[in-house]
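Q: What structure does this chain adopt?
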Amino acid sequence: IGYLLARLLRPLVKKHGELTPAQQAQQIARETEKTDYADMNEEKPVFQMMNSYVLGDDLYTHSMDINSADGTYLGQCGLEISDTVPVFDKPKRVRAIGVWLFGLKFKETTWAILMPPDAYDSEGLRDRLRVKGEPVKVEPNLVVEIETRELRMHVRIVKAEYGQGATPEDDYYKNLTLELAVWPKIVAPE
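A:
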């Protein structure tokens, strides 16, 4: 059990004080400034966070609870690797990250698949990923809206850096920093 635990945790700890990709991503997210919706005369979201992916974080997946101001559970949102360039070496070369929003009342989940521009331009790759969610070409400062019948989420592309694979559709993320903000929608009683 100890051996398996050490093998599992090994990617989270590096020698000589170096930060792992997951730790680098956490640091980037902490240091990135969130949007101040009050300054924009907009309603404050019930959920807001920064999130980063860094090349080498092969286990990248996050899910977070969404609660109202009074603590009522409304649903969840999350991010995960949706597609990688088919190579046999490490680290994985991630060319699509899925962002999802789940609303509790209607038990529905909506997805957007974030892709580097060159990977997005591959119609075959887009069609293959469309079964999971709507493919989106990532561009800096783009805001992607994801909605369920009861929640809406803004996913703002803060920063995106790409690596190039053997073909354009093999382009992958070196770094992707996102801001997630969620608001409840007014739902008519049934």
